[in-house]
User: Fold this.
Amino acid sequence: MLRYILQRLLLLIPTLFGILAITFAVIQFVPGGPVEQMVTQLTQSTAMGEAGGSATSSSMLQRGGSRLSAEDMEKIKALYGFDKPALERFTDMIGRFLRFDLGESFFHHQTVFELVKEKLPVSMSLGLWTFFLTYLICIPLGIAKAVRDGSRFDAATSIVILVGYTIPPFVLGLVLLVLFGGGSFWAWFPQGGLVSDDWASFSWPHKIADYLWHMTLPITASVVGNLAVMTVLTKNVFLEEIRRQYVYTARAKGLSEKHILTRHVLRNAMIPLITGFPAAFIGAFFTGSLLIETLFSLDGLGLLSYEAVMKRDYPVVMGTLYVFTLMSLVAKLLSDISYSWVDPRIHFGGQK
Assistant:
């Protein structure tokens, strides 16, 4: 196992490097970068100043047609680091990433690490609650459906989770806001935000209640869409185990159904579910749902990533990509290790 872990860690390096290299190369051909945005902004501001009769002009603009001189263009490129060749910029970026220096945002005037740290609590709140509630609901429900396969309960719950699966989270969130967020009917929950504006002045019980009050609708919109996949997976895994030969043998020996389910079926059926736990748990820390965060005015990582792409804020794009990819690769390794730990029959690295 140790040899396998070392091999995976060594494989992680070229994988991470390849993802960063491909993304960096694509970025070089994307139009509307920060240099172009700055030039457009300066040109437009100068044009507006001239229309208003202003006698002053930007220090970076020449009045001949409101165009930037070559010297000013070089200054702007140097401001954003584009005065260096692409290969040199990529090498510098990798060197900084190795020291976990993610750089500084072009537009937020903060380091990428500070931005992620600032937005992370919002996405963690949404991701962790979605993760825990999904597992707490889907596993018992999937087991119940497997035990009662073909019954009215199985059919009724299948219809309910199928309807929930077909409704996009964004649409469900919009419906919840209209019904319960003061849109047109009942104003039972706030329309957005993580907490109230005067949250700091509340007592601790009041703070917890206020936080849960604000998170009820976005969490509901996120969880409902995830129920179907995990529930069906749990049901199918348990059905497969229930139909195995060792279950018939246990019944023939006179063991009760409860004993067979809890002592034998549950242990074997939980293997594929538990092995996905590390990746899902780590991913919950960095889950940023753009549509949910936008709809409920939650300023999290999803909204940050979207704005970074739209504004061509390359340090934020590359920095967050580096962190998320690294965590995903580590989570995948932990999933493989947990698979071997849960099921001793599974070996990696050519072990016998």
Remarks:
- The chain has a mean pLDDT of 80.
